[in-house]
Amino acid sequence: MQEKIKKGLCCLIAALLLFGGSIGVKPAYAATAPQIASEGAALYNATTGQFLYEKNANQQFYPASITKFMTALLVLENSSQDDVVVFSDSATGNLESGAVNLELTKGDRVKVRDCLYGLMLKSANEVANGLAEHVSGSVSAFAQKMNRRAGQLGCTNTNFVNPNGLNNANHVTTPHDMALIAKACFDRADFRALDQTTSYHFPATKKRPNGTDITMGHRMIAPGGSDYYPGILGGKTGYTSAAGNTLVTCAERNGVRLIAVVMKSKRTQYADTRALLDYGFQLAGESGGKKQEAVGGETAQETSGRVQALTANSQAQSQQENPAENQQAVSRQTVSPAGSQANPASRQEANPSANQNQALSGPGAKLPSQAGWLQRNGVWAYREANGELVKNARREINGAQYWFDADGNMKEGWQQDSTGAWYYLAPGQGALQQNCWLQYRNQWYYLGSDGKMLTDSRTPDGYRVNREGVWIG
Questions:
Q1: Per the residue annotation, which of 38, 65, 265, 336 is the catalytic one?
Q2: Which of 316, 410, 309, 324 has its CA nearest to residue 355?
Q3: pLDDT attached to residue 463
C-alpha cells in the first residue's frame, strides 16, 4: 500500500513539473482586466510610460470637452496667468445652441488665471475661444498650434479644429492620444493645482456684476462626495450628442500615477473609470503586471438611487443621467409642481443635500462686518451689514441665491413666483437650484440657469419635458 502511494506521488510530481508551465494557474490575488462598457478606453501608467489597458485605444472618437486639456496646456505654456483676456464678439457669439457658457460678452476683460478656472471647472466654451484668441490671435491659428503640440507629445491620430470640443466632424482624437495629452498637463504643478480645485468664484462681468460661483463637474474629485476617489489629482468631463460621455481622470498612490480615459460612453464613464484605476493600482501592487487586452462587457451598474439630486458638481448615477457637459446642465423634478394645487413649499422629500456644493456659502457661513446668518427657532435668517434682516426679498449671498419671506425666514422647497413659474430651494440649505437635475418620486424635472423649471419644451441636452415639467423622453 505504501509503495502504491509513493508511486502515485511520484506521478503527480512529474505531471506538475511537465505541465506546470503550460497550465497557467492564476493566483487568487492576480488582477483581472476590467470589463469596460465605453466604446473606447485607455489606462496609462504615467510613471513608467506603459499602457496597462486598451480598448479601441487608437480608434478616433469625438472628444467633447476633454479637448480643454490641450487648451489649458497651451495657455499655461504660452501666457502669464496675470494676462488679461479681452473677449471679442467672435469668441462669445460663435457658440452652438445650448453650449455651456458664463455669459461673457464682447468687451469683457478677465485674467487668464480666472479664465482657466472657467475653462476647467465650468467648461465654459466662450472662455475657451477667448483664451485661444489671446494666445494665437484666432481660433483657427490656435487649432493649428494644438495639432503641432499633439504631434510633439506623440499623438498620431488626433486632429483638433477648435479649443472647446463642440461638435465638428473633423475634431477627433483617441483614448491613447488623450492619455498622452493629459500626462503633459498633470506633469505641471500649476495645472494640478487648477484641476484639483472643487469651487471657484469667477469675477464680475457685464452680465454678472456679482461674479459667479462655479464648481468642478468631475464627480470623483470632491472629497466627501459619493464618487470621490482617493488619490485623485484631477480630471475633466465631456459630453456632446455626437461624442457621448467622455472622461479623463488622473490619480496617484504610492508614487504610481495613472491616467484613465474613457470615450463614447453611455452613462458608464464613472463606473468604467473607477474599474480602470482600481485595476491599475492592483497591478502596481503585484509587481507591475503586464498590459491586458480589452474585455467588453455589459453596462456597469451604478448604485441605484444613491444620488437624488444632481448639480454641476454631482450628476446622478441612474439610467436617466444628464450627461450634458458641452451643453448647459439641466434639472428635472419628479413631482409635477405646476400641475398640483398642493402647497409646493411643503414638498421636501427630495434629497436635502441636493446642492452640497453650496454648503460652504450657505447658512452658518461666517461673513465680514455685521452681515451674517443667524438661526431663530430652528429657521435660518440673514442679517445685512446695517443690522436689518432681509425680508420679503431675494438675495445673492456668496454666489448663491436665497429667498426670504416677510418675516425674514429663509424659504425652502418649491416656490412659485408671480408669473406662475416654479423654482426649488434646497431643503436645509435654501440655495436656489440651478443648472441641475433634480429627482423626486422617481421622475425628473429640469431647472434652468435662472432656476426656473422648464415646461413643454426640449432641454439643451436634447431631452423633452411636458407642460408639467416632467421628463418624457
A1: 65
A2: 309
A3: 78
In angstroms, rounded to a whole number, what is the distance separating the alpha carbons of residues 119 and 458?
Answer: 26
Residue 220 identity (one-letter amino acid): M
> Which comes out higher in pLDDT, residue 32 or 38?
38
Q: Check: CB of residue 268 under 8 Å from CB of residue 299.
A: yes
C-alpha to C-alpha distance for 321 and 178, rounded to whole angstroms: 24
Binding site as annotated, residues: 236
Angle at 360 between CA 444 and CA 76, to 5 degrees: 90
Three-state secondary-structure class, residue 217: coil
The C-alpha atoms of residue 245 and residue 219 are separated, in whole angstroms, by: 13
What Cα–Cα distance (Å) separates residue 131 from each residue in 70, 92, 103, 403, 425?
12, 11, 15, 36, 35
123 a catalytic residue = yes
pLDDT digits (tens, 9 = 90+) for 54-69: 999 999 999 999 999 9
Give pLDDT tens digits for 373-399: 888 877 888 998 888 999 999 988 877
Express each pLDDT in 81-117 by its tens digit.
999 999 999 999 978 888 999 999 999 999 999 999 9
Determine the 3-state secondary structure of 78 from DSSP: helix
Let me know if 65 is a catalytic residue: yes
Give me the catalytic one of 38, 88, 123, 318. 123
Written as one string, the DSSP assignment of 320-374 is: T----SSB------SS-GGG--S-GGG---S-TTTTGGGGGGSTT---STT-EEE
Average pLDDT, the chain: 79
CB atoms within 10 A of CB 382: 23
Nearest to 259 by CA among 31, 45, 32: 45
pLDDT band for position 439 (50/70/90)? confident
The one catalytic residue in 38, 55, 68, 264 is 68
Written as nine digits, the cell of 115 is 479664465
Q: Which residues are annotated as a binding site for substrate?
A: 236
* Structure confidence by residue, pLDDT tens digits, 265-275: 999 999 999 99
Angle of CA points 21, 24, 28, to nearest 5°: 130
Whether residue 203 has pLDDT greater than 60: yes
Grid cell 508614487 is found at 255
